[in-house]
Automatic annotation (TrEMBL):
Keyword Transport carried by entry: no
The protein, known as: Aminotransferase
SUPFAM superfamilies given in the database record: PLP-dependent transferases
Keywords: Aminotransferase, Pyridoxal phosphate, Transferase
The enzyme's E.C. designation: 2.6.1.-
Recorded GO MF terms: pyridoxal phosphate binding; transaminase activity
Signal sequence interval, chain numbering: none
Taxonomic source organism: Halotia branconii CENA392
Aminotransferase class I/classII large domain: residues covered: 31-380
Pfam families: Aminotran_1_2
Cofactor(s) needed: pyridoxal 5'-phosphate
EC category name: transferase
Signal as UniProt keyword: no
C-alpha cells in the first residue's frame, strides 16, 4: 500500500508511546514509577462531572453548532476578558476537541505549503509535526539553560524571513516548565508586530504557576499585537479533564470562521453534553484549581530537591506547569538511551528530551502521587549513581 507522503514525514508521539509502555508494564503487574504522563492524576472535580451528567440526562445528546455551544463560547470569551485582558466576543472563539485540535485547526486554516512557523526548542512535540502535516516548514530555534530555555527577541528576529507566517509561544512551557516574564513577552510582541506575522500563544498551563509567577497573555499588550494573536487553551490541565477532549482557539474572526469551516467538515462539534461540563468549570468557584495547584507545588519541591541531590544531574527550577527538565549530559548518555535503560533496569518511566528537540535532557512529570515520586527518585538516584 502506498500511503500519502505526509505520513512518512511525521513521527508518532513519543510521549504517548512511553506512557503506553509504562501503563502496559503496570497492567502486567510490574511495579513501574511513571513520570511520563502530561496529565494531572486527580479526578475531574465533582461539580463539572455533575453538570455534564445533567446535560446528558436532559437529552443534550444531539449535533450542535460546529463552533461550539453558544453558552460555552460566551463563557470562554468572558473568561478571556476577565482573566487575560483580551477583548473577545463569542464570534472570536471556537470550541475544539482539546488544545491539540485547536492548534491543528489553526495550522490548517493559516499555513500554506512552504510557509514558515517559528518554534522555540525545547518544544511540545506536536508543534513541528502539525506544521509538517499541513506542508508548512517548522523553523526550530534552539534555546538552552543560559536563557532559561526561552527564546530571546534577538533570536526571534533573526529567525524571521519573508516566508514566516507564525510564531509559536508556549508559556508556561511543556517540557521545561519555564514561564516568560511580562517584560520578555513584551519584547517578543514587539518583534511580532514589527515583522507583521502572527503569534499563537499556547496557554494551556496558564493556571499552573508557582512562587508568585505571573502569566501574561501576549495579545493583551496593545491593539497591534492583539490583531496578530491567536490563543490556544483548554480544560485538560487546569481542571483535570484530559479525557474530555475540550479546548478552544480564540482570535481574529476571519481565522476563527475558517477554523469553524474546517471543523465543520472534519470533526463537527465537540461532544455536546461534555461542553456543559466546561461551562460549569468556568462559571463556578476556582477552588478546585487552587487545591490541585497546592498539591503540585509540594510535589515539585520534593522532586526538585531529590533531583538536585543527585550528582551528575542539573535541574533548573521552573515557575510553571508540572514538569522538571534535568540536564543529563554529564552522565554521558543521550536521552533515549538514558530513558530506555532507566525503564528497563529500574522501572522508571520518563520522557527523553530528544522528543522535544533537546537531547541533553529528560522530562519528568510530577503530576503523580508523593509515594511514587519518593520511590522513583530512589531508583533514579541508584541508576545515575551506577553510571558515574
Ligand atoms: N499544548 C501543550 C503545551 C500541551 O502540553 C498539551 C498536552 O499535553 C496540549 C497543548 C494539548 O492538550 P489537550 O489537547 O489535551 O487539550
Amino acid at each position: 500500500m502506498k500511503l500519502a507522503a505526509r505520513v512518512s514525514q511525521v513521527t508518532p508521539s513519543l510521549t504517548l508511546a512511553i506512557a503506553a509502555k509504562a501503563k502496559a508494564l503496570k497492567a502486567d503487574g510490574v511495579d513501574v514509577c511513571s513520570f511520563s504522563a502530561g496529565e494531572p492524576d486527580f479526578d475531574t472535580p465533582a461539580h463539572i462531572k455533575a453538570a455534564a451528567a445533567k446535560a446528558l440526562d436532559e437529552g443534550k445528546t444531539k449535533y450542535g453548532p460546529a463552533a461550539g455551544e453558544p453558552k460555552l463560547r460566551e463563557a470562554i470569551a468572558h473568561k478571556l476578558k476577565i482573566d487575560n485582558g483580551l477583548d473577545y466576543k463569542s464570534e472570536n472563539v471556537i470550541v475544539t476537541n482539546g488544545g491539540k485540535h485547536s492548534l491543528y485547526n489553526l495550522m490548517v486554516a493559516l499555513i500554506d505549503p512552504g510557509d514558515e512557523v517559528i518554534i522555540p526548542a525545547p518544544y511540545w512535540l506536536s508543534y513541528p509535526e502539525m506544521v509538517t502535516l499541513v506542508s508548512g516548514v517548522p523553523v526550530i530555534v534552539h534555546t538552552d539553560a543560559s536563557t532559561g530555555y526561552k527564546i530571546t527577541p534577538e533570536q526571534l528576529r533573526k529567525a524571521i524571513t519573508p516566508k514566516t507566517k507564525l510564531f509559536v509561544l508556549n508559556s508556561p512551557s511543556n517540557p521545561t516548565g519555564m514561564v516568560y516574564t511580562p517584560e520578555e513577552i513584551k519584547a517578543l510582541a514587539q518583534v511580532v508586530v514589527d515583522a507583521d506575522i502572527y503569534v499563537v500563544s499556547d496557554e494551556i498551563y496558564e493556571k499552573i504557576l508557582y512562587d508568585g509567577a505571573e502569566h501574561i497573555s501576549i495579545g493583551s499588550l496593545g491593539q497591534e499585537i492583539f490583531h496578530r494573536t491567536l490563543i490556544s487553551n483548554g480544560f485538560a490541565k487546569a481542571y483535570s479533564m484530559t479525557g474530555w477532549r475540550l479546548g478552544y482557539l480564540a482570535g481574529p474572526v476571519e481565522i476563527i470562521k475558517a477554523a469553524s469551516t474546517i471543523q465543520g467538515h472534519s470533526t463537527s462539534n465537540v461532544c455536546t453534553f461534555a461542553q456543559y461540563g466546561a461551562i460549569a468549570a468556568l462559571q463556578n468557584s476556582q477552588d478546585c484549581v487552587k487545591s490541585m495547584l497546592e498539591a503540585f507545588a509540594k510535589r515539585r519541591q520534593v522532586m526538585l530537591d531529590r533531583l538536585n541531590a543527585i550528582p551528575g544531574l542539573s535541574t533548573a527550577k521552573p515557575d510553571g506547569a508540572f514538569y522538571l527538565f534535568p540536564d543529563i549530559s554529564k552522565t554521558g548518555l543521550k536521552s533515549l538511551e538514558f530513558c530506555n535503560a532507566l525503564l528497563e533496569e529500574h522501572q522508571v518511566a520518563v520522557i527523553p528530551g530528544v522528543a522535544f528537540g533537546a537531547d541533553d535532557n529528560i522530562r519528568l512529570s510530577y503530576a503523580t502521587d508523593m509515594t511514587t515520586i519518593e520511590k522513583g527518585m530512589d531508583r533514579l538516584e541508584k541508576f545515575v549513581g551506577r553510571l558515574s
